[in-house]
Design a protein that fits this description.
About 65% of the residues lie in helices and about 0% in strands. Residues about 145-154 have low confidence and may be disordered. It is mainly α. The relative contact order is 0.11.
Length: about 150
C-alpha cells in the first residue's frame, strides 16, 4: 500500500483525487469553476483535471485554513500577480460563496494596494465590481456595512 509521507494515510488514486476535488470545486466555486474546467476540455483536458484534482482535491480541501481564509489569500495573490482578472472573477464569486461579504472583499483589495500597488488593486476591484453587479450586490458600502460586520462574527 502506498502512503503519503506527511500523514501515512493511504494515497488516493487519480480518480479519487478528482472526485474529492470536484466536491470541493462544487462547494467553493460552483458553476463558475465548472465553466473554467469545461473551457479547457478541447484544448487541455489534463490541465482541467489538475485544477480539479490537485488545486481543489489536494490544496483547497486541506484542513489548515477555513475556505473563507483560503479565498482571502487567493484574492491577494491574484491581485499581486496582475493580469488575472478572469481568475479574479471566479474567485470573487467563490469568496462570496464561502461567506465573505462584498465589504470584506473590497477591504482586502484596498489593503492589497499597499503591497501590490494601486493599478493592480484597481484592476482587482473592478473585477470584483463586475461580479457584485452580476449578483445584484451594488452599491457596496464601507467595510462592515453590508450585512454583518466582519469582526462581529466572533
Amino acid at each position: 500500500m502506498t502512503t503519503t509521507p506527511a500523514t501515512d494515510a493511504p494515497a488516493l488514486t487519480r480518480d479519487e483525487r478528482f472526485t474529492r476535488g470536484l466536491a470541493a470545486l462544487d462547494r467553493i466555486d460552483g458553476e463558475a469553476g465548472h465553466r473554467v474546467i469545461a473551457s479547457l476540455a478541447d484544448v487541455s483536458p489534463e490541465l482541467g483535471h489538475q485544477v480539479v484534482a490537485w488545486a481543489f482535491g489536494d490544496m483547497y480541501d486541506r484542513p489548515g485554513l477555513a475556505p473563507r481564509d483560503r479565498q482571502l489569500v487567493t484574492l491577494g495573490v491574484l491581485t499581486a500577480l496582475g493580469g488575472c482578472e478572469a481568475q479574479l472573477d471566479v474567485h470573487v464569486n467563490a469568496a462570496l460563496n464561502v461567506g465573505l461579504t462584498p465589504g470584506e472583499i473590497t477591504e482586502a483589495l484596498l489593503h492589497s494596494a499597499v503591497y501590490n500597488g494601486i493599478p493592480r488593486a484597481l484592476n482587482a476591484t473592478l473585477a470584483a465590481k463586475k461580479v457584485f453587479a452580476e449578483r445584484g450586490l451594488l452599491p457596496v458600502g464601507p467595510a462592515g456595512t453590508d450585512g454583518e460586520r466582519a469582526d462581529a462574527a466572533a
